[in-house]
Specification:
By secondary structure, this protein is an alpha/beta fold. The protein has a single domain, classed as Alpha-Beta Barrel (TIM Barrel), CATH 3.20.20.80. 31% of the residues lie in helices and 21% in strands. The longest helix has 16 residues.
């Protein structure tokens, strides 16, 4: 069955950073600042890039960074209000752009009203049953004292989360990213998602899962997809270490996953060091983007990666700031240094959109050494496909004759399609 998600290419924005919002919530009596309106010119940029989906980070009322939610049913006043959200939905719809929201349903901020009530009335109160407790203290998320964890066994929590999801899908969202889904029992999602799908059967749900058995999580939880961190890590690691066997091995695992579900694939997001800073050789950025756009999955580009933005995530307070910077008011104000990387992304996203079967592509390793790799991607139902050639070698490399084909995209002009200069990549037609 052909679904809208099978044609999606996401452009991922962390709005509080992107729009230059204040680091902490505005006073309760402050007027909303309609910063979401500033996303409209960037929707044209998104479409020009070749993407057709806007994946938004948190937009709901929070204390600081958006992941300490205090009201899931209210737009953060630093970003606007319901009217600003409705204008954004309308702007997306007029351009054929899908909208993905970020749902933080594992934990909330300490100013979440139900939690304040629980502190006042005690763990055994009706409000207290919304949260997990240990020795009379609330359980927190990964040591962050300001993030208190829901009790996902509580029927009230399940009903609340389902109602929040339905509310924003009713208002025009197309799906949800489920933050820290790996911390939530699969049984919770299995109970909540059917309720939401009854109202919105076409909605798409992707869980943030960093490690573990992805296929098992999908089967038990009922989500549509999870974040493919294994492929993310092996892509830059293999390029940096000149060990393309690592990428080849993980693509075998990725192939197995595609028999069960379609992962969300990416080279960057709001939680990790930017790909331009992660790669030790800048010449390998094209290699990474070519892998992202030629293997199965639903691809996502983190805003700024297509402009070669740099930024290193650090394990400290405010250590995410470097990868969540403010953007200019309009794309016209971007610095010119990112133009070549933007053009690279546009070419490869365009190729991806011209071959929509790639979302479910079957990818096999046709040739591999430490420094060279050839991947053949073909439609699941059979037929002609594409061959990706990668070289991170310091010397020119020629690939085996049986990989021959016409050049589709390349890092540079090619007289011989199978002869790659040092540190280069190429995409060929292939059976």
């Amino acid at each position: 069955m052909d679904r809208w998600i099978d044609h999606a290419v996401w452009w991922h924005v962390y709005p509080l950073g992107f729009l230059g919002a204040e680091p902490a919530a505005l006073p309760a009596d402050a007027a909303p600042v309609p910063r979401l309106d500033r996303l409209e010119p960037w929707l044209d940029y998104l479409v020009d890039l070749g993407a057709n989906g806007l994946a938004l980070g948190p937009v709901f009322a929070s204390g600081t960074h958006g992941y300490d939610t205090v009201d899931h049913l209210r737009i953060d006043t630093r970003l606007g209000d319901d009217a600003a959200f409705d204008r954004l939905v309308a702007a997306c719809r007029s351009r054929g752009v899908r909208l993905l929201l970020d749902g933080v349903f594992n934990h909330v901020g300490r100013d979440f009203p139900r939690f304040r009530q629980a502190l006042a009335e005690g763990p055994d109160s009706a409000a207290g049953r919304w949260f997990r407790w240990q020795d009379g203290r609330p359980v927190v998320f990964e040591g962050h004292d300001l993030l208190v964890a829901f009790d996902h066994e509580a029927p009230e929590v399940r009903e609340y989360v389902a109602s929040v999801m339905v509310h924003w899908l009713d208002r025009g969202a197309d799906g949800w990213r489920l933050d820290a889904a790996y911390e939530v029992p699969s049984s919770f999602w299995a109970a909540v998602l059917p309720v939401v799908r009854e109202r919105h059967p076409a909605a798409w749900f992707v869980g943030e899962v960093i490690h573990g058995d992805y296929a098992e999580f999908v089967a038990e939880s009922g989500v549509d997809s999870v974040t493919q961190y294994e492929l993310w890590k092996s892509t830059w690691s293999a390029l940096n270490d000149a060990n393309l066997h690592e990428l080849a091995w993980n693509l075998g695992r990725h192939e197995d996953l595609l028999h069960t579900f379609t992962p969300l694939t990416f080279l960057g997001n709001h939680d990790v060091t930017r790909i331009a800073s992660r790669l030790t050789n800048p010449a390998h950025l094209g290699h990474a983007v070519a892998v992202l756009m030629t293997v199965g999955g639903v691809p996502s580009v983190y805003a700024g990666d297509e402009q070669a933005f740099t930024g290193v995530k650090e394990d400290r307070e405010h250590g995410d700031d470097a990868v969540r910077p403010p953007f200019p008011d309009t794309p016209a104000d971007l610095a010119p240094f990112g133009a070549p990387t933007h053009e690279l992304h546009a070419r490869l996203i365009g190729m991806r959109r011209r071959h929509p079967w790639l979302v479910h592509a079957r990818t096999t390793v046709e040739h591999v050494t430490n420094t060279t790799l050839a991947l053949r991607s073909v439609p699941r139902e059979g037929g002609a496909g594409l061959v990706l050639l990668l070289s991170v070698d310091d010397a020119p490399q020629r690939f085996p004759h049986e990989l021959h084909g016409a050049v589709v995209e390349s890092a540079e002009p090619a007289d011989d399609p199978l002869a790659l200069p040092p540190h280069s990549w190429r995409i060929l037609t292939g059976g």
